[in-house]
Amino acid sequence: MARRGDRLLFAAAALLLGITGAAAEDAPVNTIQDVFQHLRTCWKPPPPSKARPIDITVVVSFNRAGNILGHPRITYESAEASDNDRLQYRIAVMEALQRCTPMPFTDAMAGAAAGRPFAIQFRNRKTSPDKTSPPTQERRA
């Protein structure tokens, strides 16, 4: 009986994860947290063979229909990033925004989000900086 129960539990978990993964991209965006969750589903950082992992922040606004309003602006990039790293991550951020727009806002969220800037952090570094090394200066774009 335990084996049958384990199989049922596994099947239910796989089904739930499959539904959740597919639904996350199509789910209506109703809260600010949903905006960030929706963007996470579209984020595909460059492979380590193309660029070292860095953190990057972009400020973007949306209109009521969920399309990008104006031009996204990079406001932060990790200080230790090379020019190639920055270029690869800027491309990845813009591709993520293209994949995620138009944002499927609910009517209520469309009214609340329209024209408001969102500072979206794309973090790709897995480890924290070494505590023994000297602190680095932030590099503003």
Topology:
Layout: H1 2-26, H2 32-42, E1 56-62, E2 68-77, H3 83-100, H4 107-113, E3 117-122
Antiparallel strand pairs: 1-2, 1-3
Helix pairs in contact: 2-3
Polypeptide structure, described:
Residues 120-141 are annotated as: Disordered. This is TonB C-terminal domain-containing protein. Keywords: Signal. The chain is an alpha+beta fold. It has a domain at 32-123: Fusion Protein Consisting Of Minor Coat Protein, Glycine Rich Linker, Tola, And A His Tag, Chain: A, Domain 2, CATH 3.30.1150. It has helices at 2-26, 32-42, 83-100, 107-113; strands spanning 56-62, 68-77, 117-122. The chain has a three-stranded antiparallel β-sheet, covered by helices on one side. A hairpin with a 5-residue loop joins strand 1 (56-62) and strand 2 (68-77). The longest helix is centred in the N-terminal third of the chain and has 25 residues, at 2-26. The model is unreliable at 1-24 (pLDDT under 50).
In short:
The protein has four helices and three strands, in the order ααββααβ.
